[in-house]
């Protein structure tokens, strides 16, 4: 397959009909040259006897995976001069263990999980095919498109990091990351990404990575450390991406905007009232929130879903003492509209 021959042809081998359908629909929308499906290895083997041009195989590994392993070996002989890469489909974590291999099976270059998620599959498929194009196409003059758009990476107002998905180590950061965090590039590059978000537990991080692999992107709110030991709230966005033909995790650390700060404060106050922080505790937290958000007035009310139309005022705070003829803010129509939903 060369750069002028289109996106290539793919063979899907999976017993699960839903997985075959998801993969076929995802690939069909990407205008691949041809998409072939087989419900098992026997059907795939018969199909290959017709000698079609196949650029990639998505192969399901079930039970002890013996038939899949055997088929991987056969694929190595399919076109010896340009072996066909295989993306393995694991129906569960046990499949990889049951096969009892210490290395990747012959020809397998990546894994996806079942039930198949279209976004995850396409990211890995595109990465594998990009590498295949580079290795099978004639040598050409290197393009400078990556350099041409590097200004967008360095000039972004968000902090950005490119992370190796297997080791979790940071491969690249932009200038904003260095400036806002206070860490030098030499301190950051090669370090593990978990050193730069301060609130995820190991279980939370494992769940985040699992969701990322399944859905292709995740977002969360966390605290990011500065070099001086302080932390600051950020919205974290992570997505799968392809860089130079390999899969990477693309991290964006975005400052929490004004709306985000309001949401954070309301969440804190809600947790205080649920845990029984007491009137004094809630009032103190509210005063701190007003100072942080630079508000002139704040009204904290409790409105329970089962008590339609009924509210209870928990705290009222004025930055400046109101005059005697100042209307009661709690009685204003805008406040009533908010409380009524």
Q: What is this structure, in a nutshell?
A:
This protein has 341 residues and is of the alpha/beta class. The strands form three sheets. It has a five-stranded parallel sheet with strand order 2-1-3-4-5, sandwiched between helices. It has a five-stranded antiparallel sheet with strand order 7-6-10-9-8.
Task: Give descriptors for this structure.
24% strand, 341 residues, 38% helix, five-stranded antiparallel beta sheet
The low-pLDDT segments are: 94-102, 139-145
Summarize the biggest pleated sheet. Answer: 5 strands, parallel
Structural class: alpha/beta
Helix content: 25-40%
The CA-CA distance between the termini, in Å, is 58 Å
Task: Please tally the β strands and state the result.
Answer: 12
Q: Helix tally?
A: 13
Shape: elongated
- N-to-C series of helices and strands: EHEHEHEHEHHHEEHHHEEEHHEEH
**What value does the Rg take, in angstroms?**
27 Å
Mean pLDDT: 75
Amount of beta strand: 15-25%
List the strand order in the largest sheet: 2-1-3-4-5
């Amino acid at each position: 397959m060369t750069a002028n021959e289109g996106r290539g042809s793919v063979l899907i081998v999976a017993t699960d009909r839903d997985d075959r359908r998801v993969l076929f629909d995802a690939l069909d929308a990407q205008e691949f040259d041809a998409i072939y499906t087989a419900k098992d290895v026997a059907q795939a083997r018969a199909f290959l006897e017709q000698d079609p041009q196949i650029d990639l195989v998505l192969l399901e590994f079930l039970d002890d995976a013996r038939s899949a392993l055997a088929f991987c070996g056969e694929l190595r002989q399919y076109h010896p001069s340009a072996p066909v890469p295989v993306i393995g489909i694991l129906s569960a974590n046990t499949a990889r263990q049951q096969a009892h291999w210490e290395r990747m099976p012959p020809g397998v270059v990546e894994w996806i999980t079942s039930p198949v998620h279209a976004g995850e599959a396409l990211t890995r498929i595109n990465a594998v095919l990009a590498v295949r194009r580079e290795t099978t196409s004639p040598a050409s003059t290197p393009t400078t498109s990556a350099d041409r758009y590097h200004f967008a990476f360095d000039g972004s107002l968000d902090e950005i990091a490119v992370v190796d998905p297997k080791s979790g180590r940071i491969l690249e950061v932009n200038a904003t990351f260095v400036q806002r965090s206070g860490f030098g590039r030499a301190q950051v590059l090669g370090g593990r990404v978990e050193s730069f978000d301060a609130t995820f537990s190991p279980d939370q991080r494992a769940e985040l990575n699992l969701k990322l692999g399944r859905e292709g992107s995740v977002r969360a709110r966390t605290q990011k450390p500065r070099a001086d030991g302080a932390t600051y709230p950020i919205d974290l966005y992570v997505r799968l991406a392809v860089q130079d033909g390999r899969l990477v995790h693309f991290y964006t650390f975005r400052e929490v905007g004004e709306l985000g700060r309001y949401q954070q404060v309301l969440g804190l106050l809600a947790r205080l009232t649920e845990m029984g922080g007491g009137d004094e505790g809630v009032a103190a937290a509210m005063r701190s929130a007003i100072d942080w958000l630079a508000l002139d007035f704040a009204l904290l009310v409790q409105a329970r879903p089962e008590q339609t139309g009924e509210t209870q005022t928990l705290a009222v705070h004025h930055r400046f003492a109101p005059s005697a003829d100042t209307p009661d803010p709690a009685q204003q129509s805008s406040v009533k509209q908010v409380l009524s939903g």
